## 1
Amino acid sequence: MKRVKIFDTTLRDGEQSPGCSMNLAEKIEMAKQLEKLGVDIIEAGFAIASPMDFKSVQAISAAVEKPIIASLARCTKGDIDAAWNAVKEAKHPRIHVFLATSDIHMEYKLKMTREQVLNRITEMVAYAKAYCDDIEFSAEDASRSDHAFLAQCYTNAVKSGATTLNVPDTVGYSTPEEMGNLISYLREHVENADQVDFSCHCHDDLGLAVANSLSCVRAGCTQVECTVNGIGERAGNASLEEIVMNLKTRRDFYQADTGINTKQIYRSSKLLSNITGVPIAPSKSVVGANAFAHESGIHQHGVISNAQTYEIMNSTDVGIPQNTMVLGKHSGKHALRERLSAMGYDLDDAALEEVFGRFKNLADRKKNITGRDLEALVLHRRNHIAPDACRPVSHVINTGAGLPTTAYIKLARGENTMEDVAIGSGPVDASFKAINRMMGVDAKLDSFSLNAVTDGEDSVGEAVVKISVGDSESYTGTGMSTDIIEASIRAYVNGLNKLVEDMPEEDLNSANITPQTAPIN
Ligand code: KIV
Ligand code: ZN
């Protein structure tokens, strides 16, 4: 069996895609979950891209121990300096340098000749190597590059000290056969190819990212780059969970293992979806709500007689919680701890105490608390961000036909409380206007969605808002409650807290954000 390394780029290529941005605390939380998942390499960001990117690569380097932490860098000294400064405290640092090698990229983007590109690779890989032993080199748009030239580029990289050669299908143009052939060609034509790891990095523009990656594994790649839920630029990157479960389920065919703890797959997928507010499609392979559901009678009959009639994977292998034990308002902390632990959530005492308080509140409103409800309670625990963040306290909404809707909202920040009333076109609009005023932000609601966490009349609703000010990026807020207005208010306050916390001082000033610090009453 060969061992395939999983290089996770959720926090770099994934986070780069619209609607998927995360704040520092969320990136650290996701990185810790990736460590539990057992990925070999976490690409934590692109350190030169912004001070926030730098800070998050640095923070992730300090927060996780087992995986290698990589930062991306173009082939320039400034990028490489920033990448090294961000990862140098990691237990296992890596610098990932890249340069485009296709004729179209070299002519129109880089405005460099082939010779210049070859020299730049030699120089910059050597420059990075002087900092760090572990160097990955990527030839951007490799799949559309001239093969012989590409082999020369990688040979130069190896001579300068690269230890991993990554072969990206940057624009998702290749077919599985072409990608496999390219890897075989490079393994034959790159000098000292047997001394380095070959890696692939496939995008999903034509829906072939996973198939292309698997073909590369067959052709000898020992590293695959991918993201949780397949998030990433445009149509996304190859999905981690699909690659891993293909290799596991068809081990007989691929003859390859990964170091992934597959029982953490579902949790990683849910956490990411909860952080970014990007839902998982019900039919998504491996982690979608319907991935293990059998509706048709024939299928159900078969599965009851022998699960393998229609199931090629076991949902417990992916860590999907089984709805075996339902809790209710008489359940104690011990039962909650047991149930959470069976679902893979091992909380410390303080966290358990907090979740228990929220569990009791929910149990007052909802008779049966299912595994999905518990999962939502644990995931939404993250929403208590900075200690000086605002918290919703209470609200009264007046709505009806023929009259404008009014919302009275009370918020707290630390010991202080503030209250305001606003008129709006509906309960959500009126509530958000009152909150904007109290938090001193003229935020724009870019999108709003509500989903039921479970079925039934007393289902818990999960609201997701995306908000921005001026031309800032979009911030995601999430909130849950059995009352959908309350869920919406929580989501909005959560999003605004993140926005105010993350935006640099000068942007806050230029957007006229003056967070309310004094109590209104
Ligand atoms: O898609 C791509 O080519 C990349 C490289 C920077 C690895 O993301
Ligand atoms: Zn990419």
## 2
Amino acid sequence: MRAFSVQVANTRSPIMIHPDGVERDDFERVAAWIARYFEQPGAYRVFPQVRPGDVIGALPAEAPERGESFDAIFADFERIVVPATTHWNHPRFFAYFATSAAPVAIAAEALAATLDVKAMLWRTSPAATELEMVTMRWLARLLGLPPEWTGLIYDTASIAGFTALAAAREALDPSIREEGISGRALPVLRVYITEQTHSHVEKAAIALGAGRRNVVRVECDRDFRMRPDPLRARIAADRDAGMKPMAIVATVGTTSTTSVDPVRAIAKIAREFGVWLHVDAAYAGVAAIVPEFRYLLDGVELADSLVVNPHKWMFVPMDCSVLYVKNEAVVRQAFSLVPEYLTTPETDAINYMDYGLQLGRRFRALKLWFVLRHYGAEGIRQRLRGHIALAQEFAQWVRAEPHWEILAPHPLSVVCFRYAPPGSDEAQLEARNAAILEAVNATGDVFLSHTKINGRYALRLAIGNLRTQRSDVELAWDLLKRATA
Ligand code: PLP
């Protein structure tokens, strides 16, 4: 591309401006690399053989003074970055919540980056804004949500959850938005969770000024589900003590065991006391697309907000978390603040900057739209059913094997289990299972993670990757058994 020059005031020589060229070859190389990556999904070690600091050590201390060729940059990507990556797209990634990026959504990400809109106002991004509205309605129908609910896309469930709790605070006491919480006497705000609730709720309580100490852990039943009776008793006691119950967070698919809180019973209590109910279904919510798993969201229509993460179990690459709210006006009241330079003549359009902390927003709806169209609801259902069936089969293998045990119910695609030879105390079992985990992960063939359940160390196998086959799960089981030798 031709360079052109401009004369800047007070300088003698013109400054040369080199517009960026479009290097078709570079794009084609990247496209070919991505295609190859997915053609040989198991080619890399799922968990890399690197130590903390290795990547830093392989790179210069300073940014280059002169631009480098794409060849040089890409060569270092392949030499330094790829081998030091934990490959979430590997079919034997079984850790945390196993996720994967649909190639069609990766293409959409490239297109979104190309358009590079900042989707804060309708006029900065009409297509992004309206595609978000359309995909949110499509997804709401698939999940069986009330048609009047509004869907909003955020980066993560942590931020979507924070936004829901900010709305809960706004609904409870709108004065806080203007007056703040410092320097005046306010009742104590309380949030109700269980010990299984994801930690982002506590972070939100910190950020919103409620304070960690006012996050109340309600007792669970033996299957790790919130118990409604103690919830009611705690809310009543707090109210009688002059505190303000602000929100209950129920979880559908808890992080450790995927237990499902009884949303309908909890919602009745929330209504009785006028408390905001937020349902965190970050992982499991999408399974409600499958008719036989719609029960997961039973009662959710009585809640005030719900989070589901297409970037967890719906093949949308990081990041894409969806918040549904019954009353979008409360979220807008909590966050809308329009400086003069962002005023806009369209009075009948939605401006997504009004619904959260972020101003500029990525065009996330594009990849969700590509995924929904590429697989269709039936294609997604079929894949989720497959993952759940594989996890159930794995649990049967564990149960049938002497000295192995299942540690929690496994209604979905995650199994918590451990090796438990007789005659070992808890400390020995923890050390033994931690060693098994280290050994199987060190092979580079599989990657699992762990948790603690009622103080007991548990190995955790999560299935959620598009490319995982039965043979991958068989290999994991084989490696686990071999690691006990
Ligand atoms: N909620 C639940 C139940 C989770 O399991 C997780 C993460 O695993 C989160 C929220 C946080 O998700 P994100 O990484 O999107 O913030």
## 3
Amino acid sequence: MRRLMAANWKMYKTSEEAAATIEHLSKLLGGSAPAGSEILVFAPFTALEAAAAAMRSLQGGYIGAQNMYPAENGAFTGEISPDMIRAAGASWVLVGHSERRHLLGENDEFIGNKLRFALEKGLDVMLCVGETLQERENGEVSAVLERQLSRALTEVPETAIAHLAVAYEPVWAIGTGRSAGPEDIMKAHTLAANLLEKHFGRVREVPLLYGGSVKPENAATILALDNVDGVLVGGASLQAESFTKIVTA
Ligand code: PEP
């Protein structure tokens, strides 16, 4: 299984800052991602083009957008289409990030629409799933993962497998400094792996990432767990030094 090391820059970095961080990252890594790994940077829309240009200096590095609207074009003020994302030089898109689910009110159906449309338009998609603290305390982790995955993957064909990744990001671990423990990560990843195998009817080939307060100090332990094929990193990916430590963990 290929390893995906992903950075989510959220609403941070101008285009100049994004390019400088990627150039720094590339320098620290000697111009290429570690063997068997791919590096993904989900940059703000305004920085996609500059980030993509800077990423040419890092072999095995790709740029993604953090969001998109599921339509070709049209009267959707403030939204961005997959074609616009691709034209800016990005090849990935994040779909279903918890900040969009919970702060911006996106539901499973809308996320499913985005996922299908992005794939149709030739983008690679990282689907984020994960439970809130309340749902965890109510014993609903399995039910939430099953619901989020099955609704997002409705009518997603087997041909999508090569263009899909799933990130398990417990909402209570994002940006809180409190990562999920190894047991919780393994349980959730085993569940997600089984659901993916059931959906596609074959041995899992879709990479499964963990996200939520990943740092240089805990990355190696998390990456060594069964069914963990990479990490999605917010805060600790903003500085090239700390993201390099995670990428090489
Ligand atoms: C994220 O934004 O997807 C994330 C995991 O953030 P952080 O690493 O800061 O918890």
